[in-house]
Design brief:
By secondary structure, the protein is of the alpha/beta class. Helix content is 33%, strand content 19%. A seven-stranded parallel beta sheet has the order 1-10-9-6-2-3-5, sandwiched between helices.
Length: 246
């Protein structure tokens, strides 16, 4: 794990977006195509913005994403399909393929469908974030580090649901779904490269737990310590509780 610190969320996003784009372009040059994972949420605004400014041939890129609420239509403000459509898909032009999670169909069948698809597209570059409770995708603590399933149905704990409320995606805690479809920890870790973007002081404790604590399902993102090609991008607020030099 390599930690890169920036002064602001914008600087963080610029650095993370440039790094991700470079990896994607190198992969296309080597293999003719690239398979990537895009993350969502407020932490990814600047990274995605920068990614779109880079000279990437998106027609040679296959896109997956990390998670989606069960029972939320694509028209809902909190829908991650809506997020990606508005912030990336509609702006990128021609894209090789996009495989979004549909939370409105049978969740077990959707996990099976996506699992088969991603099995045919080994991931070259995954962009992820870390939740306030330390979650990776929607794998809340204690996360399942052992499942071989690429996607699974997960229960969302209250800290996770409260984060979604506080970020403005929902009008009340009761509106936040209690379940989601999430990419599994092992599937994320199977990515060749991981770019993790984490701005904001409210993520500082989760960042410290993930980087400086032992690897544990109680700190889901701590598993990133074991990835050989993981870069974690922090702003000064997210890095404020780190005690060691990284």
């Amino acid at each position: 794990m390599k930690v890169i610190k920036s002064d602001s969320p914008k600087d963080l996003g610029t650095a993370a977006g440039k790094a991700a784009a470079s990896l994607i372009k190198n992969t296309i040059e080597e293999k003719g195509a690239a398979n990537i994972i895009l993350a969502t949420g407020t932490s990814q605004f600047e990274t995605i913005r920068q990614l779109l400014e880079e000279d990437v041939d998106w027609s040679k890129v296959n896109v997956f994403h990390l998670d989606e609420y069960i029972g939320i239509p694509i028209s809902h403000p909190a829908s991650f399909r809506k997020y990606l459509k508005e912030r990336f898909i509609d702006k990128a032009g021609a894209i090789g393929s996009v495989h979004l999670i549909n939370g409105e169909v049978d969740p077990d069948e959707e996990c099976q469908r996506l699992g088969e698809l991603i099995g045919q597209h080994p991931i070259d570059v995954a962009m992820v974030g870390i939740g306030e409770n330390g979650h990776l995708a929607f794998n809340d603590p204690p996360a399942d580090f052992e499942t071989e399933k690429p996607y699974l149905v997960v229960n969302l704990d209250e800290p996770c649901r409260r984060q979604q409320l506080n970020e403005g995606w929902f009008g009340s805690l009761e509106e936040v779904p209690q379940q989601a479809i999430s990419m599994s920890i092992k599937q994320i870790m199977a990515s060749k490269h991981i770019i993790c973007s984490v701005p904001d002081e409210r993520k500082a404790k989760a960042v410290k737990d993930s980087i400086e604590n032992e690897v544990s399902p109680w700190y889901p993102a701590s598993i990133l310590q074991q990835h050989p090609q993981c870069q974690v991008y922090l702003d000064k607020d997210a890095a404020s509780l780190l005690t060691a030099e990284h």
